[in-house]
Amino acid sequence: MCVTISVMVTSTVEDYLKAIRRLQQPTGTATVGEIARELAVTPGTVTTMMRHLSGQGLIDYEPRKGLRLLPSGEKAALRVVRRHRLIELFLVEVLGFDWSEVHEEAEQLEHVVSDRLLERMDAMLGRPTHDPHGDPIPNGDGVLAHSNGRPLADVDAGAFRIVRVSDADSALLEWLNEKGLIIGRMFEIVRKDHIAGILELEILAKTQVQLGLKAAESVFVESAE
Ligand SMILES: [Zn+2]
């Protein structure tokens, strides 16, 4: 019987590492319950996987305590993030996809593109620094720039520029595109109604757009003043 001792990072493992990376961002640790919710699996399944990842030196895991990525786990997670974001940009820039369509495609392709294909895509795109949603692309050495902007839902008045939009909700991305709320677009806040939960924006002194404060949590802006 043959036993391999090299670290095999499968697509399932990659999804777990990505989820942990995202979940540990606010506090530095993630919990089994959070991961189970995020990946829609049972806590028992997560616990089994956490033992496995811990055995491979990818995470620091003690039952009933928070868990976190170790440097090798962080590196593996960022490799997937790099693949995901470059694929999204390639689909938009080269294949003409809409920014609302690419996240689901990239979720599949991120596990299968070879390093050689990815290198070609990166070169063809001119070594880009950001994906179509404004998220920074980790470079080949796994260095990731800071994510720009603060949530539109958190600002009250003034002129702003859209720098980043969450890629999680394709219906919202479609709607934002329709309203012209795309990366780089400048606008002014006309009215913020906390009780109704609505923001009213004026884009380039022409069209006005109303959006819910919930949606405005997914749009990230910088002051344009
Ligand atoms: Zn995405």
What's the end-to-end separation, in Å? 67 Å
Rg, Å, rounded: 20 Å
CATH superfamily of the largest domain: Ferrous iron transport protein A (FeoA)
Shape: globular
CATH class of the largest domain: Mainly Beta
- Count of DSSP strands: 8
The CATH architecture classification of the largest domain is Roll
Topology readout:
Layout: H1 11-23, H2 32-39, H3 43-55, E1 59-60, E2 68-69, H4 71-93, H5 102-109, H6 115-124, E3 150-151, E4 158-165, H7 170-178, E5 186-193, E6 198-203, E7 207-212, E8 219-223
Antiparallel strand pairs: 1-2, 3-8, 4-5, 4-8, 5-6, 6-7
Helix pairs in contact: 1-2, 1-4, 2-3, 4-5
Task: Please characterize this protein's 3D structure.
By secondary structure, this protein is of the alpha+beta class. It folds into three domains: 11-69, Arc Repressor Mutant, subunit A; 80-124, Diphtheria Toxin Repressor, domain 2 (Orthogonal Bundle); 150-223, Ferrous iron transport protein A (FeoA) (SH3 type barrels, Roll), CATH 2.30.30.90. It is built from seven helices and eight strands; from the N terminus they run αααββαααββαββββ. It has helices spanning 11-23, 32-39, 43-55, 71-93, 102-109, 115-124, 170-178; strands spanning 59-60, 68-69, 150-151, 158-165, 186-193, 198-203, 207-212, 219-223. Strands 3-8-4-5-6-7 form a six-stranded antiparallel sheet, with no helix packed on it. Strands 1-2 form a two-stranded antiparallel ribbon. A hairpin with a 7-residue loop joins strand 1 and strand 2 (68-69). Helix 2 (32-39) packs across helix 3. The longest helix has 23 residues, at 71-93. Bound molecules: zinc ion. The site of zinc ion has 5 residues, from helix 4 and helix 5.
